[in-house]
Amino acid sequence: MGMITRKLRQRWQHWINRRVPRGDSQTFSQKNIFILPTGAGVVFGVLLLIMLITGINYQNSLIYLLTFILGALFVGAMHQTHRNLSGLTLALVQPGEGEAGDDVPFRFRITAGKDSGLAIALSVVDSKLEGVHVPAGQALDVILPIPSAHRGYLRPDKVRIETRFPFGLLKAWSWLRPSSAGIAYPRPLVAPEVISQVDDGSEARSSAPVAGQDNADLRPWREGDLSQRVMWKRFARSGQMVVADWEGEQGSPHWLDFNAFPGADTELRLSYLAWLVADRLQKGAKFGLNLPGEVIEPDTGPIHTDRCLRALAVWGEKPPREQDALPFGTRKTVDGATAGGSV
């Protein structure tokens, strides 16, 4: 029984995909608009049937008249409900960006044809926008929050557009199947104090000295300072334990290094780096980002920060395709393995 149900669902999905091809814009017509009675519409139809049987049984002209009037009202509501979507165009204008675990705002544009779009609702799983009205011949931009669970590319498989106007007796609906994807950044986690292993900005070495150490501010050693910061040569000469203070203004640019968190798994490292990127932006500090296979040179400002966050979000992933898109973000590496193990 389960196999039969699965095959029926696959056939239904294949039929839907042919009628609603993937794309960032969809115009709705008789070909791709679906209409069915709502629960209230089913009850209304049953009552009409009961009234008709009663009228036939008692040969009562008034019951006939009322039945036919309400039936005509039902047919008129069917046409009006269909017209609310007919000729309407739904387009994805701007895929959203945000932190994993939050709702990411996607901007859509609804353009009405010769008829107005009344009481339009857009929805995905766990998110819905209702009460949208678009006058005939005009366009309206709306924001639909898309839930995200993991960092990476975020693309809803289907965005449902629906109307139940007037009376709520019938519902007409269709879908937009976007091809563009938004971005879900790693969720920031407060990072431990570590030393980057980047030497010259173009490669990482596990045994590389701290770049710019000669120009760093020096201060006496305090409990809790990392041993990598201790100036051991100076200690050997003078017996004074001093450390290089990287918070000083004369320090070399900070490098945020993927390899600087031994023992942490991939997603945790990316979350640490996301927090460090936001921290450097708040302080106005110059920083670069070193990821396996990708290096972003030191710079400052919001544009540089956005570039680094996007690099963290999509590192090790491929843009979603039709056959492997995940509705709430992807976490697949380039070779198809899950990006969650230790590096």
Helix-strand layout with pairing:
Layout: H1 2-19, E1 25-27, E2 34-37, H2 39-58, H3 61-85, E3 89-94, E4 97-99, E5 103-111, E6 117-124, E7 127-134, E8 139-147, E9 152-154, E10 159-163, E11 170-176, E12 182-185, E13 217-220, H4 232-238, E14 242-245, E15 254-257, H5 266-283, E16 287-291, E17 294-299, H6 302-314
Parallel strand pairs: 4-12, 15-16
Antiparallel strand pairs: 1-3, 2-11, 3-5, 5-8, 6-7, 6-10, 9-12, 10-11, 13-14, 16-17
Helix pairs in contact: 2-3, 5-6
Describe this protein's structure:
The chain is an alpha+beta fold and 343 residues long. The chain has 6 helices and 17 strands. Helix 5 (266-283) links the parallel strand 15 (254-257) and strand 16 (287-291). Helix 2 packs antiparallel against helix 3 and helix 5 (266-283) packs antiparallel against helix 6 (302-314). The radius of gyration is 30 Å and the shape is elongated. It starts with a helix and ends in a 29-residue tail after the last helix.
Rounded mean pLDDT is 84
Put simply, the count of helices is: 6
Low-pLDDT ranges: 200-215, 247-253, 332-343
What is the terminal-to-terminal distance? 44 Å
Main beta sheet strand tally, sense and closure: 5 strands, antiparallel
Helices and strands, in N-to-C order?
A: HEEHHEEEEEEEEEEEHEEHEEH
Helix content: 25-40%
Main sheet strand line-up: 2-11-10-6-7
Quick one: how many beta strands? Answer: 17
Tell me the fraction of residues in β-strands, as a range: 25-35%
Shape: elongated
Structure classification: alpha+beta
Oligomer: single chain
Calculate Rg over CA atoms.
Answer: 30 Å
